[in-house]
Design a protein that fits this description.
Blueprint (H helix, E strand, L loop, with lengths): L1 H6 L2 E7 L5 H8 L5 E4 L3 H4 L7 H7 L1 H21 L6 E5 L2 H14 L5 H17 L6 E6 L2 H11 L9 H17 L6 E5 L4 H24 L1
Parallel strand pairs: 1-3, 1-4, 2-3, 4-5
Pyrrolo-dC (8LK) binds next to helix 5 and helix 6.
């Protein structure tokens, strides 16, 4: 277990609502030579052998939410497990926010039936207990639903054109609940999404330096 601790790259998951500014922060952090950024595999979700599961999920949530989230969970496991040759692996979201934010919301709002929810949760628990999916830091971009909605409209992703602010408020509340109540895999750094990109990057790099030093110490002993 000891060398397993040091063999995996330092892993940071950047979490936040739709439109909270994750991609912008990830792009900035990817400039570091010691960092490999893994963005959310949205393109996979948009093309499963020709079918756009993301679009289907937004168009007919009752029919497609469960399938979409089960595919998201699979692609997140693939991201957690993906070999990374850089010292630092920064992922966009995680299997944990998939479970505690998106799946939870879809069940609570009736877009996912109870048996669908229970099956996806059993998959999550089995994956989480049997696979080594290390996370060293969770960075949470806290954006007001209003700010998030402004950024979604500005970005103009076709499938997201009709996301109501109530959905963003639900997800915001679930992110807060998750990060305050569930037993988390790593400490949380909360960043106000209104900070400048420079301020956010500086805060993340501060924490990253500590993790790098801890790793260097551990490798010496
Ligand atoms: C982990 C996870 C990411 C994720 C994204 N989404 C949606 C929200 C956005 O519209 C789009 C890209 O993040 O996919 C989702 O419904 N469920 C998810 N679960």
């Amino acid at each position: 277990q000891k060398n397993a601790q040091n063999s995996h790259p330092i892993t940071i998951c950047v979490e936040g609502n739709i439109g909270s500014g994750k991609t912008t922060l990830l792009n900035q952090l990817s400039a570091r030579p010691d960092v490999e950024v893994l963005q959310e595999p949205v393109e996979k979700w948009r093309n499963v052998k020709g079918k756009n599961l993301l679009d289907l999920m937004y168009l007919d949530p009752l029919r497609w939410s469960h399938l979409f989230q089960s595919y998201v969970q699979l692609t997140m496991v693939q991201m957690h497990m993906k070999p990374c040759h850089a010292k630092v692996k920064i992922m966009e979201r995680s299997i944990h926010s998939a479970r505690y934010c998106f799946v939870e919301n879809m069940f609570r709002t009736g877009r996912m039936s109870e048996p669908e929810y229970n099956v996806i949760c059993e998959w999550y628990n089995t994956i989480n207990c049997n696979l080594f999916l290390p996370v060293d830091l969770i960075v949470y971009l806290s954006a007001s639903p209003t700010l998030a909605q402004e950024r979604i409209i500005k970005r103009g992703r076709a499938e997201e054109a009709n996301i109501p602010i109530s959905y963003l408020s639900e997800l915001h509340a679930l992110h807060c609940y998750w990060l305050q109540n569930e037993d988390l895999p790593a400490p949380v750094l909360v960043l106000d999404a209104e900070l400048t990109l420079e301020q956010m990057t500086a805060r993340v790099e501060e924490h990253l330096e500590v993790l790098l030093q801890q790793r260097a110490e551990a490798e010496k002993s």
